[in-house]
Structure formats: C-alpha cells, structure tokens
Design goal:
By secondary structure, this protein is mostly helical. It is built from 5 helices and no strands.
Length: 167
Amino acid sequence: MAASLETYLAAAAVAAVGGWLAFRLKGTKAPAPNPQASVRALGDLLEELRRTSKSMTESLDRRAAELKVLVAEADRRLEALKAAPSPTVPSAPAPAASVPDLAVDVSPEMKAVFDSVYEQADRGRPVTDIARETGLNKTAVTLILGLREMHRPPAPDAAPGRTGAPR
C-alpha cells in the first residue's frame, strides 16, 4: 500500500507542476528576439520549478509520514479491539412486570398505562415510541421505567452497579 500511495503522490505532484507551468506559460508573450534573455527567463523558470517541486515533495513526504503513523495507530487499535472480550448479550428480555408496589393507590387506568409502558420496554421499543403510543411524554416514560428498576430485585446475572434500565 505504501508504494502505491507514494506513486500516486508523485504522479499528483508531477501533474500539479505541469498544470502550474501551463498556467504560468499561457500568459507569456512570444519569445523575445534576444536569445540570451530567453535562456535567462527559461533558467529562472527552471529554478522556480525546482523550488516549487522541492517544496511540494517535502510537503507530500510529511503527509505520507503522518498517514503512516495514523495507519499504524489504527492498526494498533483494531488489534486491541480484536483482543478485547466481546460483551455478552442477554438471550431473552426480562418478563413483563406489573406495577411495582409503591405503597400508593394507582387507578386501574394508570395501572394499564404502566403495564403498557413495561411491556413495550421489555420488547425493546425506544422511549420515544412508547411515549407516542401511550400519550405520555418521554420524561414520564423514563420516570415510570426508572421507578420499576428501583423496586425490582437485581437479576442474579446482572453486573454490580448496573440497573439495566432502558434508555
């Protein structure tokens, strides 16, 4: 890959210099009758071309070196990701839970709304969809789900400090 990149960069530099020369020479008048002046002007153009090509080559070399460093870093990170253990995904969602006992009287209508929120969350639906379906706002849906998580006993396979509350 490095050889093809260098070849591409060299070709781009030659094309750029050629385009620059064509642009530069387009505006010049017919050669002067004095051959010494023409030779001197051509020498000046060649010197300017050398300086420009040297500057472009140095810039391309710097960028190629930066790219090599970035590719090496990306390769290192990719290897680290491959070596890292993959996270485990639960095989099945938790069963739908009824309204937790909050020591508060809840009307049958609200209980039905809570159960609908829980059921949809357990199926993996996003909070925005649940809110739209139940007529609640996203904050209320998030609060209902959070209350359920606060009153639900921790799952035996849950990681410490994780509630598993849907977002």
